[in-house]
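Reading a protein record of the kind used here takes only a little practice. The integers have meaning only within a learned vocabulary of local backbone shapes. With that in mind, consider the following protein and its fold in token form:
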Amino acid sequence: WQWESLEAMGIPPEEIPHFTNPAFWLHYFPPIGMSDLKKMGLHVDWRRSFITTEINPYYDSFVKWQFSLLRKKGKVVFGTRPTIYSIKDKQPCADHDRSSGEGVLPQEYTLIKMELQHPYPPVLKELEHKKVILPAATLRPETMYGQTNFWVLPDGTYGVYEVNDKEVFVCSPRSALNMAYQQLSRIPNQVCKIMDVKGCDLLGACV
């Protein structure tokens, strides 16, 4: 993949292994770019060119100073945003980091919290002191106003997961894992499972 891309650019095979070093890219391509721009007749004062990474200590110091000052003034803060995230690598997974799935973006759902009413089904008796939520994810929340029932798979296995000190969610393991990385778990980025329940155990319950 990356090897083939570099080969297609005319880079000799014996030089390709050097591209495992990120700094090699910075020294290899700029001269080629400059040469091509000169051939196009572009007039540039190349004395003013510089590399904008930490390999350039002057630029690196400038960026550190800039962001330190902005943070001190409260103009930049730590926060979260929707992104494709790799649980394995524990970091955002941008387009070019993926072997497949380029162009895939986060899909926004609206989570409807369907609260289970007392008395709870016998299988959930030990959770009487907590709010039991059957979360429903939808792309069209405006359609929920006319809802008359809540469907579960009778032979399906659902998990009961702690979301915070007062609420638990009944949902699939995959949903719980995804929500754990979206601040919907008692312990961030970690699934807090209490028990398993069968869909048939929830039939007839009131929400």
About this structure: Helices lie at 2-8, 22-39, 57-72, 173-180.
